[in-house]
Write a structure and sequence with these properties.
Blueprint: H1 4-9, H2 15-24, E1 33-41, H3 55-62, E2 65-66, E3 69-78, E4 85-86, E5 97-98, E6 105-106, E7 109-110, E8 117-121, H4 146-158, E9 162-166, H5 174-177, H6 183-186, H7 227-230, E10 237-238, E11 240-241, E12 243-248, E13 253-257, E14 262-263, E15 267-268, E16 271-272, E17 292-293, E18 300-301, E19 316-323, E20 339-348, E21 358-361, H8 369-378, H9 381-396, H10 402-413, H11 418-422, H12 430-445, H13 447-461, H14 466-472, H15 483-497, H16 499-510, H17 523-526, H18 528-557
Parallel strand pairs: 1-3, 1-8, 3-5, 8-9, 9-21
Antiparallel strand pairs: 2-3, 4-5, 6-7, 10-16, 11-19, 12-13, 14-15, 17-18, 19-20, 20-21
Length: about 550
């Protein structure tokens, strides 16, 4: 766990405020060191010396911080070493676990129970192009066993651990991933599933022309688009993000992508690296929601009902890819039809169903060093967007409580930053205080993430009855209600609830005191009742306004 002292050590605060604030926040245990286990087959490298791997992504995540959240990454190699064992002192690029299986033990402790997230990059069974799926379950491919999957499914249920997994074209990655609950039905893994091949017009070749010489009509005909070098050039493919939040207030329609595809300052993440043969996710409407699994612990629904009595959470494709046609373009791997709606990234928010979140990608080539190294070196806007996608997943996949606790701490610390000194004035309304804090937080989290964290607070604390939530929750168009009002109310309540303590700390600093005699209670104690009251009052206000509006229209008709 990350203590308030550890977080504030790196916070950009005047030291005179930092010392008494640390003392006041002693009760807070933030649970925001996130431990991620990256699982790879032998073909997927974690060494930067080999560009067919994900070393850059691992380094990025380890060096990232989002609010109070920090990330630690261990590596697990899925191979044939027996017995499976823990490496005592691996280098930063080496696996900590060799011969890894999901039910692996470290002494008397289950390995995966240490982690909040598991990221799976599968290659096995092979890149043979075999039209039969028989290779997938051959012993040499190390397919995930029932015992492994039983443990993994229990981890997703008990710990609410988040899972990411991907492969590539054909059946790459199927041995490890195809039977994992939710992940296995959110992405196409096998020939039987209709996964695209490596060749023929049925492949998904997303390469994009880096210059006019590759465009139709170029003198002498367009130059050919080849996997090398064009998968690793500075020209990405465009993607089409799906609207996650839509509102009509106050002027025109405002649309946002899912938080996983939101950059704090550059807007929607609308590009990905390109490649000559990608895989596919399963489209939103095609996921078999009635499927079940049984790995020896009894039959379980793959997509459980909501624990709050609302509609069942279901997977959602949040981005689609497209590919150009040959002809008129000239692809090195020959002809293919143009396509406009290739399901690329899919997510499942299992928290309301009492299980962990899941995400999947059409291909690990969006993550591979060979595809991203040049953009990383250029550090251009495309790289900033693509790298933020990786970081966003690391934030979103966490078990419940991680993000909300970071937001609570950000609200407290804001009293000692610009808004606290200039905007948090006694006598302002809750919404006015919340508006100031919201503008401040957007600079660090981005608007989508501020929205996501606030709705996590509302869900976790059950601040609104479900019948209201179904009308206000993002993903649902509701043109007559401004979602900003809810966000400003929640954030303003956080400011109000900590105003007195913040003033005591400021006074202590002004008096030259390094310590204060007060403590700020943990969030569950500090914010529960103020949030309940403020949201309750807001709900009543909306109801009155709605009823008044209905009466006016009825009178007009009469």
């Amino acid at each position: 766990m990350l203590s308030a002292k550890e977080f504030l050590k790196d916070a950009r605060l005047n030291l005179e405020f930092k010392r008494p604030l640390i003392d006041a926040l002693k009760p807070w245990k933030l649970n925001t060191y996130v431990d991620i286990l990256v699982v790879v087959d032998t073909a997927i490298s974690t060494d930067p010396a080999n560009d067919f791997g994900i070393a850059s992504v691992i380094e990025l995540i380890r060096n990232s911080a989002v609010g109070c959240m920090r990330f630690r990454v261990d590596i697990a190699l899925r191979n044939g070493e027996t017995p499976p064992h823990v490496v005592a002192a691996p280098t930063i690029h080496q696996p900590k676990y060799r011969g890894f299986r999901f039910n692996m033990m470290n002494g008397a402790t289950s390995v995966i129970d240490k982690y909040e997230q598991i990221w799976c990059f599968g290659f096995n069974p092979s890149n043979s192009g075999n039209p039969s799926d028989a290779e997938i379950d051959q012993p040499g491919a190390f397919p995930a066993s029932d015992a492994e999957l039983l443990k993994l499914s229990q981890w997703m249920q008990d710990k609410k651990g988040g899972l990411f997994g991907t492969g590539d074209h054909h059946f790459l990655g199927a041995s490890m991933c195809r039977r994992i609950p939710r992940l296995g039905t959110m992405r196409r893994w096998t020939n039987a599933d209709g996964v695209p091949p490596i060749g023929s017009p049925a492949r998904i070749d997303t390469l994009r022309p880096p210059s006019p010489a590759f465009e139709p009509g170029a003198p002498g005909g367009p130059l050919p688009l080849n996997n090398s070098p064009h998968q690793g050039d500075l020209t990405p493919q465009p993607i089409q993000w799906v609207t996650w939040q839509s509102s009509f207030w106050p002027f025109g329609i405002r649309k946002r992508p899912h938080p996983v595809l939101c950059h704090p300052t550059l807007g929607p993440i609308d590009v990905m690296p390109d490649h000559a043969h990608e895989g596919l996710c399963v489209d939103t409407a095609a996921v078999p929601l009635g499927s079940s699994y049984n790995f020896g612990g009894g039959a379980q629904p793959e997509y459980p009902n909501a624990i709050d009595g609302g509609p069942r959470p279901t997977p959602l494709v949040i981005a689609y890819g497209s590919n150009l046609g040959d002809p008129p373009y000239n692809f090195g791997k020959l002809a293919q039809p143009a396509r406009t709606s290739n399901p690329m990234i899919s997510v499942y928010d299992g928290h309301r169903a009492g299980v962990g979140r899941v995400a999947t990608d059409s291909t690990w080539h969006h993550w591979m060093d060979v595809n991203i190294d040049n953009m990383k070196a250029a550090n251009n806007d495309d790289w900033k967007k693509i790298s933020r996608y990786f970081i966003n997943l690391a934030v979103w996949l966490n078990p419940p409580g991680f993000s909300t606790r970071c937001l609570y701490l950000s609200a407290v610390v804001s009293h000692f930053e610009y808004p606290g000194f200039q905007e948090f004035v006694p006598g302002l309304s809750t919404r006015e205080l919340g508006r100031s804090l919201r503008s401040h937080l957007i600079k660090y989290y981005g608007p989508c993430w501020v929205t996501e964290h606030i709705w996590d607070i509302i869900w976790e604390r059950k601040l609104l009855p479900f019948e209201i939530l179904t009308k206000l929750k993002p993903q649902v168009d509701q043109p007559d209600i401004d979602p900003d009002i809810f966000e400003e109310t929640v954030l303003g309540t956080l400011v109000e609830a900590t105003m007195k303590q913040a003033e005591v700390i400021k006074r202590a600093a002004a008096d030259g005191k390094a310590q204060v005699d007060i403590t700020i209670p943990e969030p569950d104690e500090l914010f529960a009742e103020p949030l309940r009251k403020s949201i309750g009052a807001l709900t009543q206000d909306f109801q009155k306004r709605f009823e008044s509006g209905v009466k006016i229209f009825k009178d007009m008709r009469n």
